[in-house]
Amino acid sequence: MSTLATNSRAKFDYDILKIYEAGIVLSGQEVKSVRGGNVSLKGAYATLKAGEVWLLNAHISPYKKAGALPSYDPTRSRKLLLRAREIKELMGKLEAERLTLVPLSVYTRGRRLKVELGLGRGRKKYEKREVIKKRAVDREIREKLKRKA
């Protein structure tokens, strides 16, 4: 299992409550491009439309060796594959609790490409400041312990 892309801002901007693993529907040249690391999850999110989960705003660059693709859109919507039980669970939580589905990473599992989705609640600005302070304090403690050892 190798990680091909991560969304570093997701865990900072959101409190992740639950994590889901989803398959992703891609064309052949997109698969090759993703395996080459040409994918960005910056600003990407997932949504529910008509009982299906869709990944929006994820940027997958065209595969360099595929030649010119005149109608290719790198940020098109891509369908995500989840179990029906998980989709029903998400429907309830997204509407009732005002949560967001955020892609955390894209990775391989065997021959398949998977997307790790996090069900999260957005953080306020003051909560983000607290996270930064806590990270700095933890870093100082680690450094002091390292110096003593």
From TrEMBL:
Pfam families per UniProt: SmpB (PF01668)
CDD domains attached to this UniProt entry: SmpB
SUPFAM superfamilies according to UniProt: Small protein B (SmpB)
Matching InterPro entries: SmpB, SsrA-bd_prot, SsrA-bd_prot_CS
Main localization category: cytoplasm
An example Gene Ontology CC term for this record: cytosol
Molecular function GO labels: RNA binding
Keyword field contains Chaperone: no
Alphabetic keyword roster: Cytoplasm, RNA-binding
GO biological process, one term: trans-translation
Location(s), subcellular: Cytoplasm
HAMAP family: SmpB
Function (record text): Required for rescue of stalled ribosomes mediated by trans-translation. Binds to transfer-messenger RNA (tmRNA), required for stable association of tmRNA with ribosomes. tmRNA and SmpB together mimic tRNA shape, replacing the anticodon stem-loop with SmpB. tmRNA is encoded by the ssrA gene; the 2 termini fold to resemble tRNA(Ala) and it encodes a 'tag peptide', a short internal open reading frame. During trans-translation Ala-aminoacylated tmRNA acts like a tRNA, entering the A-site of stalled ribosomes, displacing the stalled mRNA.
PANTHER family, per the entry: SSRA-BINDING PROTEIN, TMRNA-BINDING COMPONENT OF TRANS-TRANSLATION TAGGING COMPLEX
Family under the similarity heading: Belongs to the SmpB family.
Protein name: SsrA-binding protein
